[in-house]
Design a protein that fits this description.
Blueprint (H helix, E strand, L loop, with lengths): L1 E6 L4 H5 L11 H14 L6 E4 L3 H10 L7 E2 L21 H4 L14 H16 L5 E6 L1 H12 L16 E5 L1
Helix pairs in contact: 2-3, 5-6
Length: 174
């Protein structure tokens, strides 16, 4: 099974380089990014499209599929909760540590990275049991980091630079 993961288009907190827990919609640039990606993938047939339930991901999914209403959402594809970091600049944390699988540093009430990855791994383990040829997943940078861990291994535990950029796509074989 080919599993394509896409990170949603740009949202305001991306442009401001802030942590965020709000359910925001795409910026004009985010919509444009999704439209450009739709053109690049228009000849790929997806048996199913599964999205994070957050608006930025579902809006991206709808654009990518020409507003097909058959998109399924799955709570396990939500972004890692940043908790009390929401609204703060990314620089309030050591980003390498925040995205280090082996770090014991706790930032506010943010979701533990191991619990977060386990949530995404559970989704992928269930997806393995399905009989699809090609799946499109629309989610978040953190979810793409968890995909990287699942398919490429955890190794040194450093995931800061292993996530997708807005409307970037990556394919894995499951």
């Amino acid at each position: 099974m080919k599993v394509y993961i896409v990170r949603h288009g740009q949202v305001p907190h991306n442009a401001l380089r802030q942590y965020n827990t709000k359910d925001e919609d795409l910026t004009e640039l985010g919509i444009q990014q999704a439209e450009e990606l739709r053109e690049k993938i228009k000849n790929i047939h997806f048996d199913i499209v599964i999205s994070s339930p957050l608006l930025r991901a579902t809006h991206t999914a709808y654009i990518l599929t020409n507003y097909d209403d058959k998109i399924i959402t799955d709570e396990r594809l939500r972004e890692r909760s940043c908790g009390t970091l929401s609204g703060q600049p990314l620089e309030v944390t050591n980003r390498d540590e925040y995205w280090n699988y082996y770090s014991d540093i706790k930032y506010g009430t943010s979701e533990n990275i191991k619990i977060f990855f386990r949530r995404v791994f559970d989704f992928l383990d269930e997806l393995k049991t399905k009989d699809y040829n090609s799946v499109l997943i629309v989610a978040h940078s953190g979810v793409s980091k968890a995909f990287s861990a699942y398919f490429e291994g955890i190794s040194d535990g450093k995931f800061l630079n292993r996530g997708l950029k807005n409307c970037e796509i990556k394919m894995y074989e499951l």
